[in-house]
């Protein structure tokens, strides 16, 4: 109860910090052992949005995939073809050039990994409505509002589930 209350509380702080923008706060799979479902529920209670529950319900193409020897374009095409229509296929990019290639390949959600605020704004302008953009990497309560104000659609933060501090709750009951 204390850990889940802490998860919901920190999620609410993050969600409130971006409530003046269109961005939505996403959790990640980085949860405490044996508490994934419960923490994801706590994120919802705190005003966040659940991303993926596990590896089975969507694909995120990350830098290791891009180092496989196949082209970014081929990897995106293969991922899209392998999933049922409407399934999440997300491409993680580290540069504007990778973003451009991902858009041409048909990626519909693109994660901007460790982009500067300036690069995020450029990515938003370049992307338009071709894909949803998710900011990720090193985002905390002090930086999240500025990230949201770049115009990204989503912001993911593992810190709302993995760096959570349990609340100190008393379990005293009044039996009157």
Intertermini distance: 24 Å
Percentage of residues assigned to helices:
40-55%
Structural class by sheet pairing and helices: alpha/beta
| Secondary-structure element series | HEHEHHEHEHEHEH
Our count of helices gives: 8
What Rg do the Cα atoms give?
Answer: 18 Å
Q: How many β-strands, per DSSP? A: 6
Shape label: globular
Mean pLDDT: 92
Q: What share of residues are in beta strands? A: 5-15%
**Order of strands side by side in the largest beta sheet?**
1-6-5-4-3-2
Low-confidence stretches: none
- Main beta-sheet annotation: 6 strands, parallel
Folded structure, characterized:
The longest helix is centred in the first third of the chain and has 16 residues, at 2-17. The chain contains eight helices and six strands. It has helices spanning 2-17, 36-45, 63-66, 72-82, 96-105, 117-127, 144-148, 159-162; strands spanning 24-26, 59-61, 89-93, 109-113, 132-136, 154-156. Helices cover 40% and strands 14% of the residues. It is an alpha/beta fold and 176 residues long. Helix 1 (2-17) packs across helix 2 (36-45) and helix 4 packs across helix 5 (96-105). The two termini are 24 Å apart. Helix 5 (96-105) links the parallel strand 3 and strand 4. Strands 1-6-5-4-3-2 form a six-stranded parallel sheet. The model has no long low-confidence stretch (mean pLDDT 92).
Keywords:
alpha/beta; 40% helix
Structure at a glance:
With 176 residues, the chain is an alpha/beta fold.
What is the topological layout?
Layout: H1 2-17, E1 24-26, H2 36-45, E2 59-61, H3 63-66, H4 72-82, E3 89-93, H5 96-105, E4 109-113, H6 117-127, E5 132-136, H7 144-148, E6 154-156, H8 159-162
Parallel strand pairs: 1-6, 2-3, 3-4, 4-5, 5-6
Helix pairs in contact: 1-2, 4-5, 5-6
